[in-house]
Design goal:
Elements: H1 6-34
Length: 42
């Protein structure tokens, strides 16, 4: 791997990891909004 390959690889890995975290965060929020068992009872 050449030294000029580091920035594109770093960008792809960073973009993939941010996308992964955002997708699972949105899925978790949708699950929390749709499932009444997960709501905190007062």
């Amino acid at each position: 791997m050449d030294s000029s390959d580091y920035n594109p690889v770093l960008g792809v890995v960073l973009l993939a990891s941010v996308t992964y975290v955002l997708v699972y965060q949105i899925a978790d929020l949708v699950t929390f909004a749709m499932d009444p068992r997960l709501r905190i009872s007062r």
